[in-house]
Specification:
Oligomer: single chain
Largest sheet: 4 strands, mixed
Distance between the termini: 21 Å
Number of strands: 6
Strand content: 5-15%
Strand order of the largest sheet: 2-1-3-4
Number of helices: 20
Number of domains: 2
Mean pLDDT: 76
Order of helices and strands: HHHEHHEHEHEHHEEHHHHHHHHHHH
């Protein structure tokens, strides 16, 4: 007992005091933030500034209707864009100043196009009678790839034409507003109310699962490299004079695992501080999504998943003789976890399918999949969670015993990568 605790303490202190620990503690949340938030911030940043547009239309009523819709503030127009299909759809975009041009001759089109080219105006909406009749208009703009503002313009022009068609039938502005007001639909489970915001729930669970995946992968590989480093430097032969192979493997796994929990704890505390101080825009939504069961089961599946994969990684490290051989072997160890991530998006959307159920029972994928189902299913049966945990614990214990025998012999083997018959002999005679 004392020996493996000393080894675990050494592994923990050595890694926590390293620069790599500090860098990864900052880098992984920064990476997650960059993937989830930065693209949105960039889109918002570069759609700023007032856009100067020209609407070229023969019909003054249509031109004024398009002008009125384009110059509306996002908050005023939020319920009418994209066909009024979603009141939650982002309507943010650059404010617009619109001029009306009743001349739709080819010469005028060329002149307006030249103004766009010379940056005198930002765009031209060509709405002659044929374009209005066929509902196919041209938007002449330098920023053809700016899908945010272009889609916004398309939605507002469509809204203007629909309003014009309804007004021609005798409807008042009030009646049109009422007719175009979207309907909000709140998904509710028969077992209770669903997540307050499905998009927030999806992103939150996906990010937590990715942290779980990256941490398990990262620290499992750290165990493998630690074993390989001590094996190739022959330090392990000295350590075996005072500790058994089982104590060494257990100490390494627990020590590196404690580092992973420390890192996850730092992230959790930082996230709690940001949420409590309202520094996160969706702090209220996050608090609704992060239920007590998610907070409780995250460390459980982290520890069990880490123990499972770090045991396999320690075994690989004891079998190989170089970093290159280790990289060739680790892909086979990590393949089940990688496959779990591949099907993760589908399972997040459909956590009750047979694929999700059986993947949550298979021990090599259950740390990710069962945690996902617990987070998203309000009606998940307790026996499903219990069975998954029992299978995971039993498999982890079995691998600890099995891989411990391989580790005991493999750490003293040098020169060549063992074959499968040789590994079977190690298991049999260890």
């Amino acid at each position: 007992m004392r020996n493996f605790l000393l080894i675990a303490q050494r592994e923990y202190v050595q890694r926590v005091h390293s620069r790599a620990f500090l860098l990864m503690t900052i880098f992984i949340p920064a990476l997650m933030f960059g993937v989830a938030v930065v693209p949105t911030l960039l889109v918002t940043r570069y759609t700023g500034g007032t856009k100067h547009l020209v609407v070229a239309a023969e019909d003054p009523a249509i031109a004024q209707s398009i002008k009125a819709q384009l110059e509306k503030q996002p908050s005023d127009n939020a319920t009418q864009e994209s066909g009024g299909s979603s009141s939650k759809r982002s309507s943010s975009g650059a404010p617009m100043v619109v001029d009306v041009d009743s001349n739709v001759s080819p010469a005028e089109r060329n002149a307006l196009t030249e103004k766009v080219r010379m940056k005198q105006i930002d765009g031209v909406i060509w709405a002659d009678r044929e374009a209005v009749a066929t509902r196919k208009m041209d938007l002449i703009t330098r920023e053809v790839s700016d899908f945010t503002n272009n889609e916004l313009i398309q939605g507002r022009v469509s809204s203007a034409l629909r309003r014009g068609a309804l007004m021609s039938k005798g409807l008042s502005e009030h009646d049109i507003d009422a007719a175009m007001k979207p309907t909000n639909i709140t998904p509710r489970s028969p077992f209770g109310t669903g997540a307050p915001n499905a998009e927030t729930a999806f992103l939150t669970v996906f990010l937590m699962v990715m942290v779980l995946y990256m941490s398990t992968l990262l620290y499992g590989i750290n165990v493998m490299r630690s074993v390989l480093e001590e094996k190739t430097s022959r330090v392990i032969e000295v350590m075996l004079s005072t500790a058994t192979a089982k104590e060494m493997m257990t100490g390494k796994i627990l020590g590196v695992g404690a580092v992973g929990l420390t890192q996850a704890g730092i992230w959790a505390i930082a996230g709690a501080i940001l949420s409590s101080t309202s520094l996160v825009a969706s702090a209220g939504q996050l608090k609704d999504v992060l239920s007590l069961k998610i907070i409780l089961f995250f460390p459980v599946f982290f520890l069990l998943g880490y123990l499972l994969y770090s045991t396999l990684c320690a075994t690989v490290g004891s079998m190989v003789n170089s970093e290159q051989e280790a990289q060739q072997m680790q892909i086979f160890v990590m393949m089940p976890m990688i496959l779990a991530v591949i099907v993760l998006v589908n399972i997040i959307q459909h956590p009750s399918t047979p694929l999700a159920f059986w993947a949550s029972m298979f021990p090599l994928t259950s740390p990710l999949i069962m945690f996902t189902r617990i987070a998203l299913l309000p009606n998940i049966q307790p026996w499903e969670i219990a069975l998954s945990l029992v299978l995971l614990v039993a498999t982890t214990y079995g691998l600890l015993v099995l891989c411990g025998r391989i580790y005991r012999t493999g750490i003293l083997m040098y020169g060549k990568k063992p074959t499968l018959p040789e590994i079977v002999k190690w298991i049999k005679y260890a």
